[in-house]
Design a protein that fits this description.
InterPro entries: 6-hairpin_glycosidase_sf, C5-epim_C, C5-epimerase. This protein has 311 residues and is mostly helical. The protein has two domains: 20-28 and 246-311, no CATH class; 31-245, no CATH class. Helices cover 50% and strands 5% of the residues. The protein has twelve helices and four strands. The chain has helices at 9-13, 33-38, 49-52, 77-94, 97-112, 139-156, 159-173, 207-220, 227-241, 262-276, 281-293, 296-310, and strands at 66-67, 73-74, 182-187, 190-195. Helix 4 (77-94) packs parallel to helix 6, helix 6 (139-156) packs parallel to helix 8 and helix 8 packs parallel to helix 10.
């Protein structure tokens, strides 16, 4: 794998502008607040293009296949979870039963392929994180799957989908030391936690993946009373740890010092924008990170430092 994910020129261009996009680097628009209030199927930002613009393959059962870094197609539970959520949003956008059927098919896959402890296993090796091994789980996969399964429950009233979402959240909340994904951190006098997207022995702490998990717990708290406290703790914790990702000209992708690409920097801005609807404390960081993205000097510095870290 090269310096940039999937070797895309778009990755470089997005340091300077969101105008250039492709399937792997789509700047998802933040959902209007009135739409979130009026439609329980809506999501914080619109990822429907992840389904509607997919031109890849499906297996014989119609399940989304991820074109892997090894050049082969894989059933990848993280990508399936994201695709499932995107299908739900596509259905609401188009009112086309095609997307409803896709959403239900993939929601069923998530329910049926969840392990007893609530996690989904990923068997595809990411060359950037070869120390994960050949079988791992992800906070991002858990979070996206929770949000997808909530919508399956909302549509069908079938409690099995909600039970799967609750099991997924319980695993997400399990301490890292006990084999879970919630990892305690203490950096520069800041004590908190992250939901690990890549649960390696070494701290990773990917910001966008953590926020996706936070959003899932927040959604689940509207259905299950016991997650209300977790949702509140997540908001306070995120406010506390956000400064760790601020390098005064750009954002860090993760707490092991990896600088965000243009895409992930802009994705986090949109995540913070969505969160600011519920807590205004996130608005200051949305504005701050946006100012970095709009500064040509800062964007160039981030790109140069990103390239330098890969050489």
């Amino acid at each position: 794998m090269g310096v940039f994910s999937h070797g895309k020129v778009v990755t470089v261009l997005q340091y300077f502008t969101p105008m250039f996009q492709d399937y792997w680097h789509t700047i998802y628009p933040v959902t209007r607040r009135v739409d979130i209030a009026n439609d329980r199927f809506s999501y914080f930002y619109d990822i429907s293009s992840k389904a509607m613009s997919f031109s890849g393959r499906f297996n014989d059962q119609g399940i989304y296949l991820f074109p892997g870094y090894d050049g082969k197609d894989h059933i990848h539970s993280l990508e399936v979870a994201q695709y499932t959520l995107a299908c739900w949003l596509s259905w609401r956008k188009t009112d086309d039963v095609y997307w409803l059927n896709k959403a239900m098919l993939h929601s069923d896959w998530l329910r049926e392929n969840q392990l007893d402890d609530g996690r989904w296993v990923i068997s595809h090796v990411n060359p950037q994180y070869s120390d994960l091994g050949e079988s791992w789980c992800s906070g991002l996969a858990q979070g996206l799957a929770i949000s997808a399964l909530i919508r399956a429950y909302e549509h069908t009233s079938d409690i099995s989908y909600m039970n799967a979402a609750l099991k997924a959240a319980d695993f997400l909340e399990r301490d890292f030391e006990l084999g879970g994904l919630k990892r305690s951190i203490a950096i520069n006098d800041v004590e908190g936690f992250v939901y690990e997207e890549y649960p390696r022995d070494k701290l990773s702490g990917v910001l966008n993946g953590h926020i996706s998990s936070v959003l899932a717990i927040f959604e689940l708290s509207h259905y299950e009373e016991r997650f209300k406290i977790s949702a509140e703790e997540n908001i306070e914790n995120l406010v506390k740890i956000l400064p760790l990702y601020d390098i005064n000209y750009w954002s860090l992708y993760s707490l092991d010092g990896v600088i965000s690409s243009g895409f992930y920097h802009r994705l986090v801005i949109n995540q913070l924008d969505a969160l600011s609807y519920y807590d205004k404390r996130f608005e200051s960081y949305k504005i701050k990170f946006s100012s970095y993205a709009n500064n040509l000097l800062f964007a160039t510095k981030a790109l140069i430092n990103k390239i330098g870290s890969k050489i």
